[in-house]
Amino acid sequence: MSPSAYTSSITAILSSSLLLPSVLMIACLLFLYLAYRLALRAFSSSASAAAATAPARKLPLPPGSMGWPYIGETFQLYSNSNPNIFFALKQKRYGSIFKTHILGCPCVMVSSPEAARLVLVTRAHLFKPTFPASKECMLGPQAIFFQQGEYHARLRRLVLRAFMPDGIRGFVPNIESVALCALRSWDGRMVNTFQEMKTYALNVALLSIFGKDEISYMEELKQCYYTLEKGYNSMPINLPGTLFHKAMKARKQLGQIVAKIISSRREKKVGDAGGLLRSFMEAKEALTEEQISDNIIGVIFAARDTTASVLTWIVKFLGENPAVLQAVTEEQEEIMNSKVVDEEEKSLSWADTKRMPMTSRVIQETMRVASILSFTFREAVQDVELEGYLIPKGWKVMPLFRNIHHSPDNFPNPEKFDPSRFEVSPKPNTFMPFGNGSHSCPGNELAKLEMLVLLHHLTTKYRWSVSGLQSGIQFGPFALPLNGLPMTFSRKI
């Protein structure tokens, strides 16, 4: 699944801001107020310059408000524990396209399926992906997220070659082994569901990248990745002792580990190991070691938290909806019983995963209700007209996936968890859990496969219960059940 790096940045910065003593916060706001008069003229000049470069037909900016200079409306965005309230209120007041200013950036937010498609698909060449420079340093500037044009198309072909059905169908038994190992480790104890799902997703990601043949490097690689992950949302201050500095050091070590694996494969002439690394190393479209390293680390990042978040929400929703859980369990038990030979259960196959329509609808509905990625960021590469408004060059554009997924025009009674709504395909461009267009997540088939495999064994072999009162949502940066959903899992007798 594709990450929203700006979502991470917003959360990290606001978390730091909210720790300031109230007196200091008031002083900061007073300073900003005094600075307002000084900045107003510069801000107006900027708007005039943007208007001067507008298309021949003079266009207005979208409706909305820009807030304070520099900080814009960032505080309003996170004044509630749920930032989606900000987007919903703005849409209700201004309509499906509006302007705002967050994290020092003027932004235009779009919440209609048609406008989102224009930004992500039809006129995607006018809107480039955009990330903070610190994120590019951590993941690697050659990673697919940051690219456009021919190099991006080339990377996407290579990733799809590894992660499309033909590339992953042979991984089912190996993913099943990872799932069974994970479930056994949860048996009889209370666990943080999200953290356990992250471990599962990471193990599947490493399997899909390297295959089964690089065991000797995996623990070292995991430890380096954990250090990198801790620093991802830290302030980008590269001084000894800071999380960011430790993360950048771990990033360098990760690159060295990947280089060792590549060298080892070339020396042994391993050509049938499978996985993403093989796709990257194929002679016809070979990449440099730096390009391979950047993209492998990027894929691990993209595959881990998003998939783990969806699985955590699935466990929660199934626990809250006994009728849905029963329907999924019956579907999975039918598959399980068909595979018992001489009182021994055979491994799942690719064909088995295509016999899970109810479970697949639960995954779809979870991705709609939870909308793990609430939005994505693009940047206008030139002045653009959108629905009769001007989007000046350099402004950020944010398609609001959650608003689209929760619109009653697209999904009646949108707050209700109802997998049956996916018995009929949703209207075009109204369901985009993996994004849309050339930058949509190329690993979505793998993500769905690992969810189906885990859910098969979870529902047929285990039961679970929530530990204490667990209502509410937290953002870290993705939407999650409170405290990562502490649960107790136990094997069925």
UniProtKB/TrEMBL annotation:
Enzyme Commission number(s): 1.14.14.137
Topology relative to the membrane: Single-pass membrane protein
Functional pathway: Plant hormone degradation; abscisic acid degradation
Positions that bind heme: 441
GO molecular function: (+)-abscisic acid 8'-hydroxylase activity; heme binding; iron ion binding
TM region(s), chain numbering: 12-36
Cofactor(s) annotated in UniProt: heme
UniProt keyword terms in alphabetical order: Heme, Iron, Membrane, Metal-binding, Monooxygenase, Oxidoreductase, Transmembrane, Transmembrane helix
GO cellular component: membrane
Record's catalysed reaction(s): 2-cis-(+)-abscisate + reduced [NADPH--hemoprotein reductase] + O2 = (+)-8'-hydroxyabscisate + oxidized [NADPH--hemoprotein reductase] + H2O + H(+)
GO biological process: abscisic acid metabolic process; sterol metabolic process
Domain of life: Eukaryota
Localization per record: Membrane
Coiled-coil segments: none
Record function comment: Involved in the oxidative degradation of abscisic acid.
Family indicated by similarity: Belongs to the cytochrome P450 family.
Identification of the protein by name: (+)-abscisic acid 8'-hydroxylase
Organism: Ananas comosus (Pineapple)
Lineage: Eukaryota, Viridiplantae, Streptophyta, Embryophyta, Tracheophyta
